[in-house]
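Following up on my earlier thread - several people asked me to post the actual chain instead of describing it. Fair enough. Here it is, all 562 residues.
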Amino acid sequence: MTTKLPNPTYSPETVVTVTLLNFFITPSGLEDQLLGKTVEKERKDLEIQKQQLTKSNADKSRELKTLQDDILRMLQEAEGDILEQEVLINALEMSKKKSTEINEDLAKAKETEQVIDETRERYRPHAFRGSLLFFCVSAISSIDPMYQFSLQWFMTLFNNCIDKAERFDDDVDARIESIKDFTTYNFYCNVTRSLFEKHKLMLSFFLCLSITQEEGHIDPAELRFLLTGSTATATSDNPAPEWLTARAWNDVQFANDNLTKLMGLSKHVADHIGHYRELFDSPEAHRYPLAGTFSEECTPLQRLIFTRIFRLDKLTHAIQDFVTHFMGERYIIVPQFNLADAYKDSDCCTPLIFIISPGSDPMGDLLKFAESMRMSKKLDKVSLGQGQGKKAEELLMNGMEKGQWVLLQNCHLATSWMPTLEQIVENFHPETIKKEFRMWLTSMPSPSFPVAVLQNSVKMTNEPPMGLRANLTRSFFGFKEDDLGHRTKPNDFKRMLFAQCLFHGVIQERRKFGSLGFNIPYEFNDSDRAVCVLQLRKFMETYDKIPFDVLVFLTGEINYGG
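Reply from S.P.:
Thanks for posting it. Predicted structure:
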């Protein structure tokens, strides 16, 4: 009985009757594996020599053990005076000579191995970073059942990063830094592609904390307080109850009593209460300078603690600054969704999964991409549900045989068919499938979705991004050159198109307010913007002057307001 679940739950009746074996890899074990892979890529001669030495040492050690066993056996079987047995004495002499030779060879091999290990150890920082990244991505499966990644997937990513990173022929240390940074960012881009918007900053923060914690920049007690807050009630009076909440003063007191580097915080806040009132009222409270010595001595993590205490609503922005400080701004800017990149990471045996949420529909992007790949007429699709399993199997068999694309929509609605899907994917073999074949799946998060399929697939989410800049960038990223042009009013059309995309971004940012201003909550998506752009193009071609009143009414009152 085997399982790929990271933390399986069995009934007590099962547990007491079986022996459980944990084959999950350990951080140190994975680090050694990755070190071998790195050295094999960078210094293949060293890795081959290391493997040969290991094998040679094992053979000689085995030979030495055999000689010793033979001597003991002959001594045990000897009868009479041992000194008179010429055969035994000759065997002992030969064994001694052979043993000396083997020991000398082992000593030389040990010296050579030490030199090789010293060179290999220079690449250990990259292997250590790789091990840390894999266990980061393994941990996020507890957030959502769809966030599953296999060691095989990670190994492929790791090897590809070594090949693609910038090379420095004469500077090994620069090369190691290059592949370490390239691997980290490439890993971030690949995993971010699979996460929902609300979890992307969390991944950046988790990565940053894991790396900085290993580098010694994080105090465990301060991190625990940042994540959980205070667990006690304040014993002294609140110096400014009119604006400083009881929760905030509890946090100040708890930090004062339990965090070594923040001792005296409650007195400091009471002495500078006017300054912290200004911080509390500031629109950029997470960047407002602290009072007294804390303004210069405060660490980035302690700055997060101050923001948590006084302006919890600004903690997200403070986390972005924290990640930027340690890792750079690119780790808080979500890479643009690009279906072509995901397709390049797949093959005929690797499914591509769209993890969807209410209001998101990847169908338009997929049809557009299929057209660009000249596969629009070779794309079969079926929406799964009751009785559709048989049809899906037929489409898959036909697609594998003819090299077509097959799209299975709404897999979360066909929970009873999921074991069949898992069996079909496990039976994929490159020799029996045409290389053009691709299996596309769409599913909302579902615990019944096969873990084996998730771990060995390319996963994507296609939600509207968070933030106006990201939203505008995504809108224009999806336009082709022809979409930006206009036959009669090219300059006016571009200005109006920008205004339309900006309005769409503002509407999508209002999602955080729920149904405020609307009758019901509604997830506006790309199809709403596409309809407005289509109308904009049509009316600008029809009228000599831009019909602002018509466009405002159609866009604001009907398409978005209706």
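The mean pLDDT is 86. That should answer part of your original question.
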